[in-house]
Amino acid sequence: MNSETSVSICIKCGAGAPTQRNDKAKLLCLKVCASCEEKDRNSSSVPDIKDQCAACGKSGEDINLKSCNACKMVKYCNRECQIAHRSMHKKECRQRAFLEIQNGINVDNISDNMKRVSISDDKLFQEPPAKEDCSICFQPMPYVDGLCGVKTTYQPCCGKLICSGCLFATVWGKHHGNLKKCCIFCRSKDLSEEEELTRCKERMNADHAETFYYMGNIMYHEKGDIDKALEMWNLGANLGHAASHHSIADVYLHEYGGKKKDDKKAQYHLEHAAIGGHEMARHSLGINEYNVGNMDRAMKHFMMAARTGYDEPLKLLKDGYSWGIVSKDEYASTLRAHKASQDEMKSNGRIVADRLDQARNSGIDPNDREGMAPILKELIAEGRVGKNGIIN
User: Fold this and answer.
1) ∠ at Cα 213 (239, 275), nearest 5°?
2) 211 and 204 in contact (C-beta within 8 Å)?
3) Which of 73, 178, 237, 313 has CB atoms 3.0–4.6 Å from 173's, for a disulfide?
4) What is the pLDDT along the chain (392 residues), one digit of tens a residue?
5) Cα separation of 214 and 229, whole Å?
């Protein structure tokens, strides 16, 4: 039998490790050496790392340390130190966030912390950012599903948002054998549920807000887990995702999943969703102001919602104009902006997809040629679809 030598290596300083390869050596013990133990005893007076600035190391009662907002694991003495330490802390911070997801986090506490931040009117009424474009046709897409007949679909294989027009064209092409059965954007073949989940986790690890929103929808609508859904939506909201904010607001407004009604939380998330450009959130803020008699603020919200192409506030704006709250120029410019916004979102493909979707919702089977014939005839007469069935 080959003789083997015993090796003890300090897990802190590495003392005792062989300097040359020895195939007969066998590691029997990992421990802390006497030198490291002595250092630990002598360093007992050193302040805990949680009680000192993670960047510069300052500590003491006179130093006002503030925790990292995301993970709460490290502290900083000022904003400059936090920015300087960001590159080193970012990965650890993300990992901590995912541990909280796995272990279960208190979503109510997240909303409470976010709710403390007040929003100025200058920020609340500033013009929203431009709508996100479809990854295929590069036309703007609304946040509200079905606005102007446009719906969006998240592709879990690549994380892209595709509009209903492009998705319909793809399905149509696959049905006629002109396209392979794969993702319209990344060309990936149909993935299993496990493969889709793995890709989504990778994107969430890279702080992809749309994926957090998508996973929140899966948790709520398919799994029925409102707490997990709120966790995902809160993480998306922390990244500035408007639809995530709006979903959280809906939960606390309508008591979804057994959650208690909380108007303050709902208002906070509606405001952030509106700032991000969410059409329905902006309209909801207008309704809230309207109900308490703040007509000037209500009409401001309604005009902003209408300019994004949203139809709901138009009647209320007409009332505001007849009451003298909205001026003639404001009313006229809002109507022009509403039409321009809707025109930007329209295309033949989207209109055809919406028309066929309406037919399907009314009970007509898309594979029923007789049932679909009048609709296709109408689309051909309008010049939206060619006689060969190809979208113009």
Assistant:
1) 50
2) yes
3) 178
4) 444 444 555 544 556 554 444 444 444 444 556 676 666 555 444 344 457 888 887 877 777 888 877 667 788 888 788 877 777 777 666 655 544 544 444 445 544 544 445 688 899 999 999 999 999 999 999 999 989 889 999 999 999 999 998 888 777 666 655 566 788 888 888 788 899 999 999 999 999 999 999 999 999 999 999 999 999 999 999 999 999 999 999 999 999 989 999 999 999 999 999 999 999 999 999 999 999 999 999 999 999 999 999 999 999 999 999 999 999 999 999 999 999 999 999 988 898 888 888 887 888 876 677 777 787 788 778 777 666 555 65
5) 9
